[in-house]
């Protein structure tokens, strides 16, 4: 082998360690390339040139160096080098290197949130592997495509990719290796169905994957699949079955000394006990998980478990220790920029402060949580938001409204009832967007010009991907320069998004009104909607209490109503009564 070829092979060896980034991250099996020291093993372009390596391969190696910096600037530099390499590529180059280069190119684009470009690059890679009849790489690339399609909300495309991958596995499943690849793909398909809100189909894929990993003796794969099965059973509400799977996964993780998986499984067991209202057992498992997260330096996992400890402590009546746990979790959430997690911890703090009769402090906490939720709703593309997230959001709005009305009861002249009415309007606006998204309605239809719509979508994708990268960087060993670089990049994208939205508001006010709704305040309702002969009735149904607001041009009156379940039962009974020929004349029954 020529010296230049050895350099390329050395680069490829490092590349193989990090090729299939989406798969590696999804399984949690591989360390991040960025900052790991692997980049120093890649020969630089000067070494390559000294050994007669072609310009295309020199650019490839330079891109590897830039990619290893682990910053947005480094990823962009890598993309530039790899695009240069592609321009210089010729038939004399090693044909095995080009799809490797394209895989890295797709990964860098995905890191920057350029998901459409990443998808196109993966598809180009797939075609090359098909021409080379490299079925194993085809399967891995199809799995990466499925992940990108899922992030783009193209679930059918993601399912198609995993089905193609499984079909390839079936063709070559003569040995354990390919059987294991099939199990990996089945796990991916299960995750997609879980995100689609179809736990039954997810369960079938996980069960098939479990059979395979046990058959081929893949113990780490067994632990991962058992956890997936536990998660989906919990989603289905079968907590007993979920615990069975988690308790099978736990000793496997311990046997393998997989501390991260052990901590996650302990946390999952604790959370399931919480759902069963067995907080003492939950606490025992959370407190076993906590030192493992700290040993790993995983601040995100630590914050999640601390928040769960706070919930368990609060349920057990130990408000002081619950407060201590929440106050430890909150700065960790903020340090790793976990905005959704921060909103959750703030919400739990608000609940605790309300129960301690510190309603003013509770109001401060829930307002901060709602502000984060509003920010997340407008800064993340709707295709990536799951119904489960919105369900938790509605729960927080309900808490906010109920707290304001409790404060109104204590201070009738402080205007808390008007704030509650406004919060109800905001919750309704968010619920409308969720319904539109679930119905498949394209609320961007008619946006003019079309390029603004595309810019908004691209920027939302980039912000989502960069935010995820930021959490991962801040949650691992990183340099101050890496942290600052990702923060600067995010702020730049936010500023660009604000500018695009300003243009959208100017050119397409109807679209802006839907995606960025600004509910009317009480004075605006009284001045712009009502007249002397019109009254507005607005209600909000809550789990514990419901409310009715009666708005007139010169006054606001509010009433507390029974819980949602009681009202719905009364409505159902009334409907059945008036539609029954035998009962509708019975005024007593109707009353």
3D structure, described in words:
It is a single chain. The chain has a 3-stranded antiparallel β-sheet, covered by helices on one side. The N terminus is likely disordered. Helices cover 75% and strands 3% of the residues. The longest helix is centred in the C-terminal third of the chain and has 28 residues. It is globular and about 85 Å long. It folds into 5 domains: 122 residues, no CATH class; 64 residues, Alpha Horseshoe (Serine Threonine Protein Phosphatase 5, Tetratricopeptide repeat), CATH 1.25.40; 85 residues; 78 residues; 71 residues, no CATH class. The protein has 591 residues and is mostly helical.
- Protein structure class: mainly alpha
Low-confidence stretches: 1-14, 16-43, 379-389, 437-441
Give the N-terminus to C-terminus distance in angstroms.
93 Å
Helical amount: over 70%
């Amino acid at each position: 082998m020529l010296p230049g070829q050895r350099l390329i092979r050395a680069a490829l060896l490092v590349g193989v360690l990090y090729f299939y980034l989406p798969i590696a991250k999804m399984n949690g099996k591989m360390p991040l390339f960025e900052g790991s020291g692997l980049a120093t093993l890649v020969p630089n372009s000067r070494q390559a040139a000294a050994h007669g390596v072609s310009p295309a391969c020199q650019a490839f190696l330079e891109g590897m160096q830039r990619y290893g910096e682990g910053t947005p600037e480094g990823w962009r530099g890598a993309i530039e080098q790899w695009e240069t390499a592609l321009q210089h590529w010729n038939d004399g180059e090693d044909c095995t290197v080009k799809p490797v280069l394209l895989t890295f190119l797709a990964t860098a684009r995905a890191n920057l949130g350029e998901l459409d470009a990443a998808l196109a690059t993966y598809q180009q890679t797939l075609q090359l592997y098909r021409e080379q009849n490299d079925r194993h790489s085809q399967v891995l690339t199809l799995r990466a495509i499925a992940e990108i399609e899922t992030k783009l909300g193209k679930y059918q495309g993601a399912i198609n990719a995993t089905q193609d991958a499984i079909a390839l596995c079936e063709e070559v499943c003569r040995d354990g290796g390919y059987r294991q690849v099939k199990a990996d793909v089945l796990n991916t398909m299960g995750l997609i169905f879980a995100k689609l809100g179809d736990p039954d189909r997810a369960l079938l894929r996980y069960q098939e994957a479990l059979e395979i990993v046990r058959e081929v003796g893949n113990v780490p794969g067994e632990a991962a699949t058992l956890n997936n099965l536990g998660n989906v059973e919990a989603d289905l509400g079968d907590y007993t079955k979920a615990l069975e799977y988690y308790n099978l996964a736990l000793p496997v993780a311990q046997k393998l000394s997989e501390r991260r998986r052990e901590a996650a499984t302990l946390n999952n067991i604790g959370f399931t006990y919480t759902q069963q209202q067995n907080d003492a057992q939950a606490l025992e498992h959370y407190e076993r998980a906590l030192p493992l997260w700290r040993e790993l330096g995983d601040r995100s996992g630590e914050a999640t478990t601390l928040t769960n400890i706070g919930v368990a402590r609060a349920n057990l009546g130990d408000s002081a220790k619950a407060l201590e746990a929440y106050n430890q979790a909150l700065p960790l959430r903020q340090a790793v920029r976990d905005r959704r997690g921060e909103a959750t911890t703030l919400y739990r703090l608000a609940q605790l402060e309300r129960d301690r009769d510190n309603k003013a402090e509770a109001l401060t906490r829930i307002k901060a949580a709602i502000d984060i939720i509003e920010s997340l709703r407008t800064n993340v593309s709707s295709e990536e938001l799951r119904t489960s997230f919105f369900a938790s959001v509605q729960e927080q709005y309900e808490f906010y409204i109920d707290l304001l009305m409790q404060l109104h009861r204590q201070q009738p002249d402080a205007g808390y009832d008007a704030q509650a009415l406004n919060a109800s309007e905001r919750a309704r606006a968010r619920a409308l967007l969720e319904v539109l998204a679930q119905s498949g309605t394209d609320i961007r239809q008619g946006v003019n010009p079309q390029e603004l719509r595309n810019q908004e979508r691209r920027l939302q994708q980039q912000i989502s991907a960069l935010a995820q990268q930021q959490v991962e960087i801040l949650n691992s060993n990183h340099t101050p320069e890496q942290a600052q670089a990702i923060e600067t990049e995010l702020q730049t994208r936010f500023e660009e998004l604000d500018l695009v939205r300003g243009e959208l508001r100017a050119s397409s006010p109807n679209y802006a009104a839907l995606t960025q709704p600004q509910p009317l305040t009480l004075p605006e309702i009284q001045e712009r909607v009502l007249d002397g002969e019109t009254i507005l009735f607005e209600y909000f149904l809550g789990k514990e209490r419901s409310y009715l607001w009666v708005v007139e041009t010169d006054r606001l009156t509010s009433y507390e109503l029974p819980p949602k379940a009681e009202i719905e039962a009364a409505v159902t009974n009334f409907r059945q009564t008036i539609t029954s020929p035998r009962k509708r004349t019975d005024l007593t029954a109707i009353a």
